[in-house]
């Protein structure tokens, strides 16, 4: 330093910078836990709330509150499931999904348990704010059955729980925006049955890890050829259920929505017959998630 120059005093720390870094770090970590599943557990619920709010012509402020509340609710809905699922699935995740936070060492088991406890406490409280606390508690019970009580190890229980998860998603997604109706139950029950029957598509990509962990999925219990044939037939016929039970196309817009979702179903039916690789089967399952989200988004023009 030359003569006459004065030292620049260090900038004082911003009082809120440390809490802000903690909050943003937790959000980023939560997304790492959930990033494989938002098309199944987050986006569809928010899309359905948006469709119901639009259908009931909610005023702008009420519309925005319903959509924002739905996003928060389903963020916690998915996060709690992923935390507990990955806690009990660490062995197969080392084989099937090594980029998840626990196999990577980004977080420890104790920290994951603490986060799960916080989310399981916050989730029904958020549900209470929007009048759907009973749905939240039911989802937590199903999550415990699937992830912590060994349900995921038996294919019938696992598939039933995931089908029930569709029902426990659509109920609160609707009720956040409007009272339940006969249309609600038509959508809920139809999609719960569809997901229960076709969710074994998810298991085709994880055969090695599931076998190593001792899980008995449908492909392991009844063979991969049977499972692929069953799923191909199911997805080929799925557009009929979409038309007669859900979308009921009668206008150009609704026929367009049906055509788009039918194209996804038939693409899945074709792909599921082709044994390529776990990555190929993962993309096929991702198309199923896209179909689910697209179908619920299409409710905006079909309800």
Structure description:
- With 303 residues, this protein is an all-alpha fold.
- It is 77% helix and 0% strand.
- Helix 10 runs antiparallel to helix 13.
Supply database-style keywords.
mainly alpha; 0% strand; globular
H/E series: HHHHHHHHHHHHHHH
Number of helices: 15
The span between the termini is 74 Å
Main β sheet profile: none
SSE class = mainly alpha
Number of strands: 0
Identify the overall geometry. Answer: globular
* Parts with pLDDT < 50 across at least 5 consecutive residues: none
- Give average pLDDT, whole number: 90
The share of residues in helices is over 70%
Percentage of β-strand residues = under 5%
Query: What would you report as the Rg, rounded to the nearest angstrom?
Result: 22 Å
Write a brief caption for the model.
By secondary structure, the chain is an all-alpha fold. It has helices at 17-34, 38-41, 43-55, 60-88, 90-96, 101-104, 109-129, 133-148, 155-175, 182-198, 207-213, 218-222, 224-247, 252-272, 278-302.
Give the helices and strands, then pairings.
Elements: H1 17-34, H2 38-41, H3 43-55, H4 60-88, H5 90-96, H6 101-104, H7 109-129, H8 133-148, H9 155-175, H10 182-198, H11 207-213, H12 218-222, H13 224-247, H14 252-272, H15 278-302
């Amino acid at each position: 330093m030359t003569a006459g120059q004065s030292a620049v005093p260090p900038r004082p720390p911003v009082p809120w910078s440390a809490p802000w870094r903690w909050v943003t770090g937790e959000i980023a970590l939560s997304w790492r836990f959930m990033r494989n599943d938002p098309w199944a557990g987050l986006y569809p619920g928010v899309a359905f709330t948006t469709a119901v709010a639009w259908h009931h012509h909610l005023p702008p402020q009420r519309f925005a509150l319903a959509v924002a509340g739905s996003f928060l609710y389903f963020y916690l809905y998915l996060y709690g499931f992923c935390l507990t699922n990955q806690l009990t699935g660490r062995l197969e995740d080392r084989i099937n999904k090594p980029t998840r936070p626990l196999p990577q060492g980004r977080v420890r088991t104790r920290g994951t348990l603490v986060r799960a406890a916080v989310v399981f406490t916050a989730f029904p409280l958020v549900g209470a704010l929007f009048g759907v606390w009973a749905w939240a508690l039911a989802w937590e019970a199903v999550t415990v059955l699937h992830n912590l009580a060994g349900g995921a190890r038996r294919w019938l229980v696992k598939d039933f729980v995931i089908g029930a998860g569709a029902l426990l998603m659509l109920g609160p997604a609707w009720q956040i925006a409007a009272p339940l109706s006969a249309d609600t139950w038509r959508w809920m029950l139809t999609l719960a049955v569809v997901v229960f029957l076709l969710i074994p598509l998810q298991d085709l990509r994880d055969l090695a890890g599931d076998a190593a962990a001792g899980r008995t999925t449908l492909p392991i219990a009844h063979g991969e050829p049977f499972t692929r044939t069953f799923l191909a037939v199911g997805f080929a016929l799925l557009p009929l259920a979409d038309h007669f039970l859900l979308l009921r196309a009668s206008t150009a817009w609704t026929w367009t929505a049906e055509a788009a979702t039918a194209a996804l179903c038939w693409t899945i039916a074709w792909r599921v017959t082709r044994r390529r690789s776990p990555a190929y089967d993962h993309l096929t399952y991702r198309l199923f998630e896209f179909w689910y989200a697209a179908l619920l988004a299409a409710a905006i023009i079909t309800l």
